[in-house]
Write a structure and sequence with these properties.
7-stranded parallel β-sheet, 9 strands, single chain, Rossmann fold, alpha/beta, disordered N terminus, globular
Length: 267
């Protein structure tokens, strides 16, 4: 997993003990995280890992049944809050419910996203609108609600789950999806500059191909999509490990960007 590789590298250079001590100085006990898109995939894996690490976890997504099942599994330190991130009022209510239940909000993981692929000349403009509503505006709504709570406290982490598509267009069919992720890069960098000196850390995690339900938006099954690839994708837990690595850094350290791909993925 992601953190294991970091530890092995550190050990080879003789500073593993120092790394472990620094990581342990950041106490995750009683810290609270919101994870959007928590009903499956990267969001679900991240919520599980945060919960295992001692965080209170607030699960946000539209599929209430899945959220409730996950919250029941994770126990009393998990709260399911069905949320449509394209509704600004719902995002404000999500943060308010979090603070009401746990007293504060320390980490926001902006994971909710959608990918609908097609050539520009043939695609449905409604699909473009859906992607921008969720991948861009939804992120802005949740981030705005979260940082309004974090700023008076002078601390917090805002994590954006982006994509390698934020760096290059993967193919002609992914142009508009990639545009939403390029927009997310601009939002991330602008927020980082805005939060300078205010105690809020801004992190972008940019995975390559990950095995999730994501392809089901454009393919008959996820299995069909992954079968077309000549390399194994990342697992959702790999990305979750990267998130935990970033938010568990000492408060004097911020990991602004993490780019991770399957070993054999070239682009």
């Amino acid at each position: 997993m992601f953190t294991v590789r970091i530890l092995s590298y550190g050990s080879a250079l003789g500073f593993r003990t120092r790394y472990d001590v620094r990581m342990n100085t950041h106490d995750s006990t009683n810290r609270t995280a919101i994870v959007t898109g928590a009903s499956s995939g990267i969001g679900e894996a991240t919520a599980r890992l945060l919960s295992q690490g001692g965080y209170n976890v607030v699960l946000a997504a539209r599929r209430a049944d899945r959220l409730e099942a996950l919250a029941a599994e994770l126990g009393e330190n998990a709260l399911a809050v069905p949320t449509d991130v394209t509704d600004p009022a719902a995002c404000e209510a999500l943060v308010a419910r979090t603070v009401e239940r746990f007293g504060a909000l320390d980490v926001l993981v902006n994971n909710a996203g959608i990918g609908l692929y097609g050539a520009i000349a043939e695609a449905d403009p409604d699909d473009w609108r859906k992607m921008f509503d969720v991948n861009v505006l939804g992120v802005l709504y949740t981030t705005r609600a979260a940082i309004r709570h974090m700023l008076p406290r002078g601390s917090g982490d805002v994590v954006f789950i982006s994509s390698v598509a934020s760096r290059r267009v993967p193919n002609a069919y992914g142009a508009v999806y990639s545009a939403t992720k390029h927009a997310l890069s601009a939002i991330t960098e602008g927020l980082r500059m805005d939060m300078e000196g205010k105690g809020i850390r801004v992190v972008s995690v940019e995975p390559g191909l990950v095995r999730t339900e994501f392809p089901m938006n454009s393919y008959s099954s996820a299995e069909e999509y992954y079968a077309q690839k000549d390399y194994a994708p990342l697992e959702a837990e790999d990305v979750a490990e990267a998130v935990l690595y970033a938010v568990n850094q000492p408060l004097s350290v911020v990991v602004n960007e993490i780019l991770l791909r399957p070993t054999d993925q070239l682009n």
